[in-house]
Structures are given as structure tokens and as C-alpha cells.
Amino acid sequence: MAPTQKQASKKRVRSALKDVVTREYTVHVQKLVRDKQFKKRTPTAIKGIIKFAQRHMGTKDVRIDPKLNEAVWAKGVRYPPRRIRVRLERKRNDDEDAKEKLYTYATHVPGITNFHGLENTVVDTE
Known about the structure:
alpha+beta, five-stranded mixed sheet, 5 strands
């Protein structure tokens, strides 16, 4: 049964302005690029990281840090990293004519070689 008009209007809309938060995630890039041709693997990985950030942070505007881009492209177009640790920061958009009130800024967390046992964590920015 399709939801009626009354049921659809009762859905809670979360105030995203209060949700300026920073989290660290491990993105399993190998799942994203499986069965892709070699010349499209790393571009697909970048698009997959953007989709991952949109899904987990709830913003359509996702910006990739140049260091994250370099980390994904480090071994070339054919061999993106299997997993990568990413810090996602949901920030307020200061542009007056911006469509979205918030955006997500994705950065690389360097120095992690063993991903076993890592969990998604909320990072204190203070």
C-alpha cells in the first residue's frame, strides 16, 4: 500500500544545521571497482567515495581534499587502494547563494596500513 498524504507529512525532518560533525570511516574501495575495466577503476573509486559520503553524511554537496585524491590515484588508474580511511566533516556552507546549507569535506587519514578492527568513529574537532 502506498503511504497516504497524512502519513507522508508525519515523517520527521532532522535539522541538519545542528549536525556539524566529523567522523572517520573506512571505505572498502575494492567493492566499488570490482568488475570494472582497468582505465575506469580509479575514477569509479572517486565517484564511489563521493556516493559513500553522501549516503553517510546526508549532504549532496561533497568536496574531495586534494590529498585524498592523490592517495587514491597513488598507484595509477588501474590499481586504486583496496581500502582507505576517510575523515568526513559536515560543515556549514557560508555562501549566501548556495543551494545546500551544509556540505561534506572528505580528507584522507594517512598512516593506516592495517584496517583490521577499525571502527567508524566520531572525531572531536576541539
